[in-house]
Write a structure and sequence with these properties.
This protein is α/β, with parallel strands linked by helices. The protein contains 13 helices and eleven strands.
């Protein structure tokens, strides 16, 4: 029996590696900041993965980690707690291995993401609150005799942050021929915390001077947790009664994969500003991007202002997390803004002014460094 299991694991890993070998790297797209001469900005376009988001990297790593640990077998039901994109990507890999997949998601997750999960053969189990995702996921895994992937615990440890084509290694390889090949800042946001941990560990391991800025959305505890940790007060019990309106990032509780020491600073971004920046980036690229990319772009503007104030030139790289097609009913629908009471006019004006050089400090909060 053990030999048969090892044979299945070997074949499963080979399928995932072959799938990776068929895929090309994601693009690095330059984007201008008119008010910041000498500062070059690039977007790492993770929407070009087969499943359309940054979470494709995470899902591949989580499956390889679970397989190598002996947690998956050929009859396993794979269960994940996810607001959408991770579940889409995990459904893809589960189908690749011939395994059933169940995504445990909060009510209100975009119907486009639900359809994407179902397209890859996954099922969606909806719960009332984002705070109940883990409990429901563990229960379903027990009932099915399956495995709960638990992205929020294992994201930071499943990714090989030293090499193996992680996102940090990819960024530095693609930046090699640019005028400022070592970025002054890399800007990301946190859903699990796995990407910020990978980026922070890699730049330290490779001894780069690059700093990591993590942008947090309005309804999330990560910023307050980080700010407290920088003051020597670590409070992992922080919680909120609801999740973030910016899908895929921010959490109502502190997650194990969020590592404050891997980050150099954080900013907290109002949802209205995230979505205004999203609309700006979409207009500049000629295609829709998701709300988390807008959050990251506000982080870019903050980093650029810091560099300009210090008389620095250089480059900034930010993560373009996913495309906007999955948010047609929300971020790209006027009625959604009306229903949620989110400003559009003033927020758009603030982003335009910031692009020309106006300070955003009054609109966002910055953590101590």
């Amino acid at each position: 029996m053990a030999g048969n299991h090892r044979d299945w694991v070997a074949k499963a890993i080979a399928r995932i590696e072959a799938d990776f070998n068929r895929s090309s790297d994601t693009h690095l797209i330059p984007i201008e900041l008119p008010g910041y001469p000498g500062i070059d900005v690039y977007l790492k376009d993770e929407s070009s993965h087969p499943t359309g988001s940054l979470k494709h990297r995470l899902a591949r790593s989580l499956f390889l980690y679970a397989l190598a640990n002996g947690w998956l077998h050929e009859a396993s039901t794979v269960v994940e707690a996810s607001s959408g994109s991770t579940a889409v990507s995990e459904a893809y890999f589960a189908r690749l291995l011939g395994l059933p997949f169940v995504a445990v998601m909060p009510h209100g997750t975009s119907p486009e993401k639900i359809r994407a999960i179902e397209f890859y053969g996954g099922q969606c189990h909806l719960v009332d609150s984002a705070c109940g995702l883990d409990e429901a996921s563990r229960r379903l895994a027990r009932q099915s005799g399956g495995h709960f992937m638990d992205q929020f615990t294992y994201a930071e440890r499943a990714t090989d942050w030293r090499a193996n084509n992680n996102i940090a290694e990819s960024i530095f390889r693609q930046m090699a021929l640019e005028p400022h090949p070592v970025p002054a800042w890399i800007v990301c946001s946190a859903g699990t915390g796995g990407t910020s941990a990978t980026l922070g560990r890699y730049v330290r391991y490779r001894r780069h001077d690059t700093r990591i800025l993590c942008a947090d959305p309005e309804s999330s505890v990560f910023f307050d947790y980080y700010a407290g940790a920088m003051r020597g007060h670590v409070d992992a019990s922080l919680s909120l009664p609801h999740g973030s309106r910016i899908e895929g990032i921010g959490r109502p509780r502190v997650e194990p994969s969020f590592i404050p020491g891997c980050i150099d600073t954080m900013v907290k971004v109002p949802d209205s500003l995230s979505l205004a920046a999203m609309r700006h980036v979409s207009a500049r690229l000629g295609r829709r991007v998701g709300g988390s990319t807008g959050t990251n772009f506000v982080g870019v503007l903050y980093a650029a202002q810091c560099m300009r104030s210090a008389g620095q030139t250089g480059s900034i790289v930010a993560i373009l997390c996913d495309g906007g097609e999955r948010y047609a009913h929300s971020y790209y629908a006027a009625v959604w803004y009306d229903r949620n009471g989110i400003d559009v006019v003033d927020a758009d004006a603030a982003v335009v002014a910031a692009l020309e050089g106006t300070d955003l400090e009054l609109a966002i909060a910055a953590a101590p460094t």
